[in-house]
Write a structure and sequence with these properties.
Layout (H helix, E strand, L loop, with lengths): L1 H39 L2 E6 L5 E3 L6 E9 L4 E12 L26 E5 L15 E2 L6 E3 L2 E10 L5 E7 L11 E6 L4 E3 L9 E2 L3 E3 L23
Parallel strand pairs: 2-13
Antiparallel strand pairs: 1-3, 3-9, 4-8, 4-10, 4-11, 5-6, 5-9, 7-8, 10-12, 10-13
Length: 232
């Protein structure tokens, strides 16, 4: 009886050890996918290109505001959010795509008041917004509560860094001198299909309208004052 009791206790100890080992083994394997997922998660940096502000007018071309470098191998980039704060009469109509300063929002980033470009890594000047960079076709950008959401669909991230530019385009006319606003992005304003990357909040300096008259065309007339000079 003593021998049976001894072996029974040894078996219980062995069984308990095997159960503990199995739990550790299972927990270890369930942990590794999470480690891999975190290792492949999106990372991003946001560079403020207008930290000192800028002057806007109706003749301004596309103006780069933020340079966003993002990478990852297991997620899609799905969009950005930017935050507008107006002063000096600047307004961004609630529930509308119109503003007193910027062109209307549009799916075409090339004409939208706020747009997104993807940097070319092979032509032009990589890392700077130029004519070789591609305007991203957005999916119905929206405005609400002083924020603009720029939906990009699903753009697969790569192991290498992809560079995007957030841009602004002033209205062609109807600007009011002295209106001003800032644009910001907060941590969490870069959207991906899994876990948004973290970054430090950024806000531009004041972007101020200069609506001073500009000379856009000079014409010469004959002595009669009405006939344009066609040569000489």
């Amino acid at each position: 009886m003593h021998s049976i009791s001894f072996f029974s206790k040894k078996w219980q100890q062995t069984a308990a050890f095997l159960v503990t080992l199995a739990l550790v083994f299972t927990a270890s394997f369930s942990y590794f996918p999470r480690v891999t997922e975190r290792a492949n998660a999106a990372t991003a940096t946001v560079e403020n290109l207008l930290s000192s502000g800028a002057t806007l007018d109706g003749f301004a071309d596309r103006i780069p505001v933020f340079k966003i470098s993002v990478s990852g191998t297991s997620e899609n980039l799905t969009g950005f959010k930017v935050r507008l704060v107006g002063s000096g009469g600047a307004n961004f109509s609630e529930g509308a795509v119109n503003s007193s300063i910027l062109a209307n929002l549009d799916n075409n980033s090339d004409v939208s008041g706020i747009g997104v470009y993807v940097d070319s890594s092979t032509v032009g000047t990589p890392g700077s917004l130029d004519w070789e960079d591609t305007p991203v076709n957005m999916n119905n950008p929206t405005y609400s509560s002083n924020t603009v959401t720029l939906s990009l669909g699903n753009r697969p991230l790569q192991a290498g860094v992809a560079t995007y530019f957030i841009t602004v385009k002033p209205k062609d006319n109807g600007l009011t001198n002295g209106e001003s606003f800032t644009i910001g992005m907060n941590n969490g304003d870069i959207f991906t299909s899994v876990t948004p990357p973290t970054f430090s909040n950024v806000t531009t300096g004041a972007l101020t309208v200069s609506a001073a008259p500009k000379i856009t065309k000079i014409m010469a007339f004959e002595n009669d004052g009405t006939t344009p000079v066609t040569n000489g």
